[in-house]
């Protein structure tokens, strides 16, 4: 736990940078609604069970109307990885988390478990999540945290914002800020239902055929 203040400070500094456009993340941080946990090397599955349990607990205590809440898993013991290496490690961790989670929980029926489906979202604890990968080798500044990390945002909170008529305005504001700060909008950003979220998780720009490394499995008997 001695590492926790350091990773929280690193994340706060990242949000405060002139290249970070996401207003939702800034709001979550300002309201002290970001839950942090520390793992080790993102390439290693030793903590997959502990991380899965933490995400399950986070999912159990959140409601859709609890908007701008995030769980952030830090991997400060990781080496320097390029975008393809990070992508492989991120999906390996999602696979390990899923393999633990499926022992107790079925996939969230409000989202697809097929990574090629436009309605796909990662599911943990019976709840859909949008996952954001951050790491120092990211091509976009907004994803460039000094160490690898994975942000888990409940899919239900985005649906709640959409029902309240707030989602589109928030998304447009983030895109405008991204263009102003970084010169262009993230080309991988898409609305849920237009293309698979899996394409967006690692932050790598994908152009052309791509097969998601993550393979969902049914609930364990």
Would you mind describing this structure in some detail?
Helix 3 packs across helix 4. The N and C termini lie far apart (about 35 Å). Helix content is about 35%, strand content about 10%. The longest helix has 19 residues. A five-stranded mixed beta sheet has the order 1-2-5-4-3, sandwiched between helices. The protein is an alpha+beta fold and about 220 residues long. The protein has one domain. The model has no long low-confidence stretch (mean pLDDT about 85). The chain is built from six helices and five strands; from the N terminus they run H-H-E-H-E-H-E-E-E-H-H. A hairpin with a 2-residue loop joins strand 3 and strand 4.
Oligomer: single chain
Structural domains: how many: 1
Main sheet specs: 5 strands, mixed
Backbone shape: globular
What's the N-to-C terminus distance? Answer: 35 Å
- Spatial order of strands in the largest sheet: 1-2-5-4-3
Overall average residue pLDDT: 83
The secondary structure category is alpha+beta
Helix proportion of residues, in percent? 25-40%
Poorly predicted tracts of residues: none
| Beta-strand percentage range | 5-15%
Reading the helices and strands in chain order gives: HHEHEHEEEHH
């Amino acid at each position: 736990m001695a590492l926790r203040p350091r990773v929280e400070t690193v994340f706060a500094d990242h949000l405060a940078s002139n290249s970070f456009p996401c207003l939702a993340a800034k709001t979550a941080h300002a309201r002290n609604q970001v839950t942090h946990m520390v793992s080790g090397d993102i390439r290693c599955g030793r903590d997959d069970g502990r991380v899965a349990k933490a995400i399950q607990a986070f999912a159990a205590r959140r409601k859709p109307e609890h908007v701008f809440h995030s769980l952030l898993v830090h991997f400060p013991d990781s080496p320097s990885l390029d975008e393809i290496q990070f992508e492989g490690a991120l999906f390996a961790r999602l696979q390990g988390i899923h393999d633990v989670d499926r022992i107790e929980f079925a996939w969230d029926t409000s989202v697809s478990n097929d990574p090629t489906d436009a309605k796909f979202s990662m599911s943990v604890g019976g709840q859909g999540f949008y996952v954001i990968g951050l790491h120092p080798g990211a091509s976009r500044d907004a994803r460039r945290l000094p160490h690898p990390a994975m942000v888990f945002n409940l899919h239900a909170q985005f649906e709640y914002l959409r029902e309240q008529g707030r989602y589109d305005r928030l998304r447009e504001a983030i895109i405008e800020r991204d263009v102003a700060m970084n010169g262009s909008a993230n080309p991988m950003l898409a609305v849920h239902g237009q293309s698979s979220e899996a394409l967006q998780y690692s932050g790598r720009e994908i152009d052309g055929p791509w097969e998601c490394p993550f393979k969902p499995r049914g609930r364990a008997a």
